[in-house]
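[agent] plan:
  1. take the single chain provided in the ticket
  2. run structure prediction with default settings
  3. attach structure tokens to the ticket
  4. add a short note for the reviewer (M.T.)
[agent] executing step 1
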Amino acid sequence: MNLYAQNYESGLYSPAMLLKMAFIAEGMGDKEQATLYLSKYYDLAPTNQIISKIKDLTGQNTLYGFEVSDSGRFLLFLVDYKEYIVGGLAVLLILSLLSIWWMGRNPEEKISYWPSLILLLLLFISNNFLKGPRTGLITNSPTYIVSKPTAGGSIIDRIEPGHRVKIKSSKDIWYEVEWKNSVAFVKKEHITRL
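[agent] step 2 finished; step 3 output follows
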């Protein structure tokens, strides 16, 4: 477990390693760490079996933030293959620029710059904006989800550890999160970022 933990802290981990770490943590009685590793695994390979296991570990029947959707899986696929997508678009852009240069040698041929501009735009978008959702796992009990980033905000929900939230932004000691399709706030000390 120590070797796995060192690699995990360095950012070097695979889905298989995360499953092994969750199994070891559960065997040691650390259900919170096991839930954390399974949640990280869920980011890499979302399945209903992982959700069921997290429900067993946390003792809850309903967990929010673990929805498996086709659009979410497609986004994860694009993020996983981002380097290949950017590389492929760069190669196509180079080929497009070479064809413009080749056609420019003959003054009678009409040159179209649109393919190069479209490829340049796609390359910019995929390189700068293709990112997976920022998520966090609720780890403290009880956690209050409030309507405003102040102690005076009205309480929307009181939850136990195990739920996942999408983190939209950070404000002082608060995270702005998406909770049940609405905007809410949770103290940072109650969330472990995945």
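[agent] step 4 note for reviewer: The longest strand covers residues 164-171.
[agent] ticket updated
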